[in-house]
Specification:
This protein is of the alpha/beta class and 460 residues long. It has two domains: 296 residues, Zn peptidases (Aminopeptidase), CATH 3.40.630.10; 135 residues, Aminopeptidase i, Domain 2. Helix content is 26%, strand content 23%. It contains nine helices and 20 strands. Strands 1-2-3-13-4-14-18-16-17 form a nine-stranded mixed sheet, with helices on both faces. Bound molecules: manganese (II) ion (2 copies). The site of one manganese (II) ion (MN) has 6 residues, from helix 4.
């Protein structure tokens, strides 16, 4: 490394052959992003990818032996994929955990109304967003809805070229004099973030003519009635595609990179290692979980005891006599979540020498949290040392970052949840610009290096 630490950019360091691999990987990642705009779609695509590579549902296996590839689906919104190692579970597991929920707008349980001949759907934002970024952009609608017989209908509208889409109409600047006086936190009232869904009146209806016309279309298309919204989960997400950004095509822009960039790398690194005939000494687990953006609460989040149950199933099916707590204590984990990259226009919020520079490697973050390290999982020096050695040995380019200046804000990941169980955990993921916006930006080199770092970790 040299006496003085020197941050290098990935592009100048990689060979042409490696640079070509970056482009191939990036394109596959972009395809994944475009087809995985919700947590349910991420799980569907993960299952597809896993099934194609010799994995099966753990419930189909009576017992498990070294080399077996299985996954556990937690309520369609989270999945734990595992390859059984040569050693007993008592020696611990290598876990990479990422999340697949992203900030978005959810429909309220009873969303449909009509005002001045426009049918609207009321929304409630999910996760930490700057509300104004979601106004006046094309939105796609995804989700599931059940009819009174309990039949499930999948909804996917707005993402193909000839498809219709949705939007929230922001107030025109000409009449926004009062609105513009409010501070940025308040000037968009979340109760006024309604999706425009229709404008044609039903000729036979007495009143609420537009609302009725919309309901008739929905009924024809999905066989649903208004009350069925109460048994639905419908999300509005940006209706534009991820693509390369910059005249040099060095970056990737797209919705939901937090944290699907790490989730894709998580799955791909495991699958590619298997394709390279890698045998695992210790059991490895790639898990993608839900509900991180709202504080990891609920039965599909990392905090759910579904993960403990999964470990119990592994213990039982491998015939291990180990105690679950011992397994945790001997396990290590990368908390695979995005980090912040220094923004050229707002570098004052970052402590530069403790920050991630776009294109300079996967971000290794000893801790997140805020202020006096509140709510952070602070990786110990021993574990930092172990991970840095793994990365150095495997030529993984990484940088040491923190979220930003100490009292400028803060944020967390799922790291603390596993750390609380006794697992050694450190945050490791891709640095992005404009996190939580409808169009997050990452360096394609960092995206690729994230994948290489996970490969190195799974093998360790
Ligand atoms: Mn995240
Ligand atoms: Mn986030």
């Amino acid at each position: 490394m040299g006496l003085m630490y020197d941050k290098k950019d990935i592009y100048s360091t990689l060979s042409q052959e490696e640079l070509d691999k970056v482009d191939v990987y990036s394109k596959e990642y972009i395809d994944f992003l475009n087809s995985s705009k919700t947590e349910r779609l991420c799980v569907d695509n993960a299952i597809k990818l896993l099934n194609e590579n010799g994995f099966c549902d753990i419930t189909n296996k009576k017992s498990l032996k070294a080399g077996d590839r299985v996954y556990f689906i937690n309520k369609q919104k989270s999945i734990f994929a595992t390859v059984i190692g040569q050693k007993d579970l008592i020696y611990g597991t290598n876990i990479i955990g990422s999340h697949i929920d992203s900030p978005r707008l959810d429909l309220k349980p009873m969303p449909l109304s009509e005002n001045h001949d426009i049918a609207i759907l009321k929304t409630q934002y999910y996760g930490g967003i700057k509300k104004y970024q979601w106004m006046s952009i094309p939105l796609a609608m995804y989700g599931v809805i059940f009819n009174e017989k309990g039949e499930k209908k999948n909804i996917a509208i707005g993402d193909t070229n000839d498809d219709t889409c949705f939007t929230i109409a922001d107030l025109l600047p000409h009449l926004a004099k009062d609105q513009m006086k409010a501070n940025a936190n308040e000037f968009i009232d979340p109760e006024k973030m309604s999706i425009i869904i229709g404008n044609i009146k039903d000729k036979e209806a007495k009143d609420h003519k537009v609302k009725e016309a919309v309901l008739k279309i929905l009924n024809k298309k999905y066989g649903i009635q208004e009350i069925d919204f109460a048994r639905s989960e419908i999300e509005l997400v940006p209706a534009f595609d991820a693509k390369f950004v910059g005249i040099d095509r060095s970056m990737i822009g797209g919705y939901g990179q937090d944290d699907r960039v790490c989730s894709y790398a998580n799955l791909r690194s495991l699958i590619d290692l298997l394709k390279e005939n890698q045998n695992f000494d210790k059991t490895v687990i790639a898990m993608i979980v839900d509900k991180e953006e709202i504080g990891s609460v609920g039965n599909t989040s990392m905090s759910s005891q579904a993960f403990d149950m999964f470990i119990n199933i592994l213990l039982q099916k491998t015939g291990s006599k180990a105690d679950r707590l011992n397994v945790y204590y001997n396990s290590k984990m990368l908390s695979a979540d995005v980090a912040t990259a220094v923004d050229p226009d707002y570098d004052e919020v970052s402590d530069i020498q403790n920050s991630n520079i776009l294109g300079c490697g996967v971000a290794l973050e000893k801790y997140s949290g805020s202020g006096g390290k509140y709510n952070s999982s602070d990786a110990n020096a021993e574990f930092m040392s172990e991970i840095m050695q793994i990365f150095d040995k495997n030529k993984v380019m990484y940088q040491i970052g923190t979220l930003g200046k100490i009292e400028k804000g803060g944020g967390g990941t799922i790291a603390y949840i596993l750390a609380d169980k006794g697992v050694d955990v450190v945050d490791c993921g891709t640095a992005v610009l404009a996190m939580h916006s409808p169009y997050e930006v990452a360096s394609k080199f960092d995206v690729y290096m994230t994948y290489l770092s996970y490969k190195a970790f799974f093998q360790s």
